[in-house]
Amino acid sequence: MAFQVLLLMVSLYHRPIYFDDAWFAEQAFQFLKFGEIRTEVFQGLLYYENKLHTAHKFHVINGSVFIALFGFSPYAVKAVSIFYTLLLLCFFYVYGRQFRVFQYSITLLFFLLFYLTQNFVLEYFYAYRPEPIIAALGFGSFYLIEKSLQSRNLSYAAIAGFLAGLCAFTHLNGVIFMGAGGLILLFNKEFKLVLIFSFASILGLSLYFFDIGSQEELLYAYKQFRNDPALSEDNFTALHYITKLVDEHKRLFWDYAEATMTICLLVALLTSFRFLHDKHKNLLYYTLSLIVLLAVISRNTSSQYYLLYMPFVAILSVIAFEEVYLQKKAIVRWLVTASLIFYFGMNIYLNIQMAFAKEYLLPTHQKISAIIPHQTKIMAPLYFVFNEIDNYDMQTTEVFFLLNKKKWQSSSNFFDFCKKHKREYIIIEARDKDKLLMPWEELIKGDKNYQYLATIDKYTILKATFSLQASTNK
């Protein structure tokens, strides 16, 4: 356990900044500044600069709180996930102790080690994504469902429902906790608890629409949802959601870290399904409900959503493994031992890799800021919002890519696009070259409207040759 904590602490220092860290952080910054969720760096795309109705709203609100407390930086917003992961660990401890899900106290400690060794968990422990929030609130909802079934207490069902609704307020994929919670209560024939849970969860979900105050805004919200660049036309067909059930294995085996957890679940079900069904029926069917519901409603099989039900997969696996070591034959114990060796070996290896993967973006951004006059209009990679968001009128290169991806603009020339949007400086980096639809050699040379200015680390800077005033007059 101490080794894992040490690896985690080492990994936090100059952990690479992810695209989503910057994307959501800018939304949180704007919410704190204007009181509504918008994104000025995506200006020109679906009126996002006015209001972003498709945001992961409770996630963004949490980020704005941390920015208010600690200032705008990647470290401040990444701390949101630390807070909610620690909250999830508290829920684990309380649930494990109160419901005696493990036969020995030491197994609870082993479970915490098992969960905290998972590379996928440690990666998102320090990433500003909504999944850690949903995982914590979702597990809290399940814990209170169990309490309500144990005591027939309506208050527990109401709070459980509201937490499930908050999951959806955080990210619409969180509705799986509303569905799974209702199904488990229905399965137990607790119809009064179902009604209370459902009402409270809908109340929590209704918060998602807090920023829609007129018919016009409702229309804009529909347009943004319907034309979301992350979606395709296939996402709006019934066949898409039916066939996605067949593809869920892609999420479960996305990469080595996810595969190790999935293998543990499969071994647990293979060796101990009857035990889990008899002794932990609610946990078993709640977990399976989450997996099926996410497979049906999510827009794709991206691995980050695995984190929503990973706590339940982990706890089921350890409960089953404890039973195997206590009751089963030697050959079955060897199977479990082999899966655990693979699990810990692979995840420790991945954690060591993660711990020593470093990135030093902020000093580079400061060097760039020193040569580009403040308050000018720039086109830059999204990462440049850290910590230059207040210094420039910034538009991200991602807008150009998305508009072309959706075929929403006539010209695919990047420099023409920058001139049209009156960008005085362009900052580009090689990893974005495919998105800008030009050979890298041509991009860094510029054209008649933009000339090469400087190269700082991995960034190339171009300066406009035209007069902004003349461009405005045209």
Q: What are the defining features of this structure?
A:
five-stranded mixed beta sheet; 5% strand; 474 residues; transmembrane helix; single chain; globular; 22 helices; D-Maltodextrin-Binding Protein, domain 2; 2 domains; Glycosyltransferase RgtA/B/C/D-like domain-containing protein; transmembrane; mainly alpha; membrane
Structure description:
The chain has helices at residues 2-12, 19-34, 57-70, 74-98, 105-117, 119-124, 131-151, 154-170, 175-187, 191-206, 215-226, 238-252, 256-279, 281-297, 306-327, 330-355, 361-371, 385-388, 397-405, 414-420, 440-445, 468-473; strands at residues 377-380, 393-396, 425-429, 450-456, 459-464. 44% of the residues are buried. With 474 residues, it is mainly α. Helix 4 (74-98) runs parallel beside helix 7 (131-151). Strand 1 (377-380), helix 18 (385-388) and strand 2 (393-396) form a beta-alpha-beta unit. The chain crosses the membrane at residues 75-94, 101-121, 157-187, 193-210, 259-277, 283-299, 306-325, 331-350. It comes from Rhodocytophaga aerolata. This is Glycosyltransferase RgtA/B/C/D-like domain-containing protein. Keywords: Membrane, Transmembrane, Transmembrane helix.
The helix/strand order is: HHHHHHHHHHHHHHHHHEHEHHEHEEH
Instruction: Assign the structural class, choosing from mainly alpha, mainly beta, alpha/beta, alpha+beta, or little secondary structure.
Output: mainly alpha
Number of domains: 2
Number of helices, counting only DSSP H or I runs of 4 residues or more:
22
Query: Could you tell me how far the N terminus lies from the C terminus, measured between alpha carbons in angstroms?
Result: 65 Å
Strand content: 5-15%
Fraction in helix? 55-70%
Strand order of the largest sheet: 2-1-3-5-4
Tally of strands: 5
Q: Tell me the Rg in angstroms.
A: 24 Å
Question: How does the major sheet shape up?
Answer: 5 strands, mixed
General shape: globular
The parts where pLDDT drops under 50 for at least 5 residues are none
* Mean of pLDDT: 92
